[in-house]
Amino acid sequence: MTSKIALASLLVTTAMTPAFAQNMGLSAASVEVGTAFLTGDGSDANQTSLEGTAEFAITPVFTLGASLGLYGHSGDSYYYEPSSYDATNLTAHALYKATPTSAIGVFVATESTDAHVDNINAVGVEFGMRSGKTSFDAYYAMTDLAANSSEDYTFGGMALEVGLAQGFTVGASYDAFSPSIGITSSGALIEATVTDVAVSAGYDFGNGFGVEAELGRLGITANDGATNYTAADPEVYVGLNVSYDFGGNGGTFTKARSFMDLAAFSLDRF
Question: Structural domain tally of the chain?
Answer without folding.
Answer: 1
